[in-house]
Amino acid sequence: MNKTSLSVFLFFFLLLLRHSVLSAKEHSDRELVMLWWNVENLFDTRNDPATEDDEFTPGGKRNWTEKKLALKQLRIRKVIETIRIDPDVRRYPDIIAFAETENRAVFAGSLKKIPELSLKTVYYESPDTRGIDIGLAYNPESVRLRSSKAYHVPIVNDKPTRHIIVAGFYAGRHPFHVILNHWPSRAFDREWSEQKRITAAKTARHIADSLRAADHSADIIIMGDFNDEPHDRSVKHILGSSGDREKVLKECRTLFFNCWSGYEGIGSYWYRNRWERIDQILLSCGMLQPKGLSAAPETFTCYHFPDMLTRSSGKPWQTYYRGQYKGGYSDHLPLLLKVSVEKQ
Fold it and tell me: In the structure, what pLDDT confidence band is assigned to residue 1 with cuts at 50, 70 and 90?
């Protein structure tokens, strides 16, 4: 090959390489990744006299030390970093929501020191007596925050529960909303506690209906630990969960598509020798259409890698199990959703 031919070859090679880089960037700019995860008692080590957090202090029942906190935060970062290199994802989550985080500082601190990722946070302290909240973080380079609000769940004659958080964003010029939930647990008796989850479901439904009043096909993503499964009354009948995409498209004003529908993997929570699907992501009918934001069936996953499960039983490797420190990730597995953004 002479010098002229070599120069022409290099020119077109560099041109092709530049085109590939731009195409990859264009593709990445048209996809968002959303993560929901109940991280299991993400407490700092300080005693807050306003909450029932005494057990998560160095002198408390759990002997919760700075070393244990640092290990838990390290495990959280490992999950985020593993998502980045996963061949099916290849990017950090653009929106991250955690349940069971004590305050803004410990939440934001858990997401620091991740290479090339700088997040902003939305955080509201909840009235939960243990002091656990929902934390929301987002990448300002891929989405822009419009507004956010915390909604009180009116539990009567019982301890207060976590707020429901709604945040509005733009992806480019496309608006969308995220509604975050951590409903009351099934502690003591499932049927006795069901009414509290129904109250939470009514609150979340009110928020969603308010958003759909202006645009019945608005792009809405509902994520959370509902402490009920997709077939339970609170989720199916009150919130309006359906596993039928076509039905959701026909009944835009009343139904949400539940991403667990058709999913063949394991659940997010192990209880009484079976997998449960109490962590869920639901989509409005707008999310099932190509305009604005959209999510195909195969873009949802209950995300995990081998180290997140115990080798002996294949259950989630918990931080605590029956009061004993195990040093694992969480008693829940995270949910991941990849969303396409219509090109502008």
Answer: low
